[in-house]
Amino acid sequence: MGCSSCSTGKDGQPRGCKNNGTCGTDGCNKLTVFDWLSNMALPNGQKPFDCVEVRFKNSRKEFFRNTEGLTLSIGDVVATQAKSGHDVGIVTLTGELVKVQMKKKKVSFESKDLPKVYRKASQRDIDIWQKCRDKEEEIQKRSREIAIALKLEMKLSDVEFQGDGSKATFYYTAEDRVDFRQLIKDMAKAFNIRIEMRQIGYRQEAQRLGGIGSCGRELCCSTWLTDFRSVSTASARYQQLALNPQKLAGQCGKLKCCLNYELDMYLEALKGFPTQDSKLQTEKGVAFCQKTDIFKELLWFSYKNEPANWHTLHKDQVLEILEMNKANKKVASLEMYAADNVVPEEKMSFENVVGQDSLNRFDKPKHRNKNRRKKKKRPNNKKQFAKNG
Predict the structure, then answer these.
(1) CA-CA distance, 221 to 210, in Å (whole number)?
(2) What's residue 130's pLDDT?
(3) Per-residue buried b or exposed e for 226-241, using 16+ beta carbons within 10 Å of the residue's own CB
(4) How far apart (Å, rounded) are the C-alpha atoms in residues 228 and 256?
(5) SS3 84
(6) Helix 181-191 and helix 123-149: axis angle, to 10°?
(7) Residues of the chain with pLDDT under 70
(8) Residue 210: its pLDDT value, please?
(9) What is the spatial distance between Cα 149 and Cα 335, in angstroms, rounded to a whole number?
(10) Which end of the chain is less congested by CB atoms within 10 angstroms, N or C?
(11) Mind listing the domains of the chain with CATH numbers?
(12) pLDDT of residue 127
């Protein structure tokens, strides 16, 4: 998503603002929030909410208290309180909507432990911040080499510098517990900064790095999805999906989050369907359910002795047969019900539209016909010469 600062370059190619995610409009960043209360004035006598939401690298967001009463708006670069020193981030939300976000993320806005906003970032703060961000890629590559040399089974996925450049946080993923004490010593000696290691999950890694999903769009976790709900294979079973790990897994290697998007609709529709293990008692034998089509409300049953021969039944017909079975009554066969669901096939009629159905209309004419015509004309010419002679 481009912001208003990104203009078009030569030949229609996007030029971009080239601010590396720190542009003033904050429109090309991940998880951008739209302030729909920005044009509304506060009631008389009410003070504006003194907390703001600040975004740091990628999707990390934190809440800070504006104790100095600074006039802040979305897109302002501010210097905020950190454990040691200060950090630099971008204001993403102000006003009453911050209170809503804090309630959503279960952060008490009455707490006195909230960090503070020191000031609006000066040009010197921004220069130091940009310089540190430019070094992140090189330091990440060097830290991976050190981890490989120590034979640690971990993956360093991202590096984030503090705004003043005194500290760097390394995000990593690992299957088991990793002893990285020697790694911290080597990196602190090589980079001359304080090191903090933070383990994240595979979904959090995909959220920070971003990418394109199999649907062709940006990953949901890196654009708008903020909470990671558990996804199980039962979600795929309810939606009649094939349990293929290659298709059901996302870039993080876990089940796709989008499997939960339509799950509630399927569960609501399945309430009126008989269970998958329902059996139909007929005089011809016992029939088992083989397949279900939720949208067409059709079910396919087959006899125990004929598993390859499926019979199509409507949902209401199956419920009717089950009610009869509860009353100790058996239907004659499934064929008498399945015959009502047979749809006659429509015959396709083709018309010749300006010779479009001719497959050889563009072929070159064959030369055999010309040779035959020449052979037929030769004897006639001889006769004519004979008559003239």
Answers:
(1) 8
(2) 92
(3) eeeeebeeebbebeee
(4) 10
(5) coil
(6) 130
(7) 1-32, 339-389
(8) 84
(9) 70
(10) C
(11) 20-121 (no CATH), 128-205 (3.30.300), 229-271 (no CATH), 279-341 (no CATH)
(12) 93
- Output the CA–CA distances (angstroms, integers) from residue 74 to 55, 89, 155, in the order listed: 10, 11, 35
Strands (E), the chain: 51-55, 61-65, 77-81, 86-93, 117-120, 155-161, 167-173, 194-199, 279-281, 286-293, 298-303, 310-314
Two structure tokens written together for 77: 């670069």
Residue position matching structure tokens 């039962």: 234
Q: What is residue 26's predicted lDDT score, i.e. its pLDDT?
A: 46
Q: Which residues of 291-307 are buried (b: 16+ CB within 10 A; e: fewer)?
A: ebebeeebbbbbbeeee
What distances in angstroms separate CA 369 from CA 128, 365, 373, 377, one per listed residue? 86, 9, 6, 12
Which residues does 360 contact at the CB level (< 8 Å), separation at least 6?
Answer: none
The count of C-alpha atoms lying within 13 angstroms of the C-alpha of 66, restricted to the half-sphere facing its C-beta, is: 20
Rounded to whole angstroms, the Cα distance separating 63 from 91 reads 10
Please, how many CA atoms are within 13 Å of residue 286, restricted to the half-sphere of its CB?
A: 5
The answer to whether 140 touches 146, Cβ cutoff 8 Å, is no
- Tokens coding 270: 């399945």
User: What does the mean pLDDT of the chain come to?
Assistant: 81
**Alpha-carbon dihedral angle through residues 361, 366, 370, 372, given to the nearest 10 degrees:** -120
Alpha-carbon radius of gyration of the chain: 36
Write out the two tokens for 152: 């640690």
**Long-range CB pairs of 342-347, under 8 A, 24+ apart, other chains included:** 342/312
3-state class (DSSP) for residue 19: coil
Q: What is the pLDDT of residue 211?
A: 87
Neighbouring C-beta atoms of residue 191, cutoff 10 Å? 17
CB distance 259 to 242 below 8 Å: no
- Side-chain half-sphere exposure of 150, counting CA atoms within 13 A: 20
pLDDT of residue 48: 84
Q: Are 303 and 284 in contact (CB under 8 A)?
A: yes
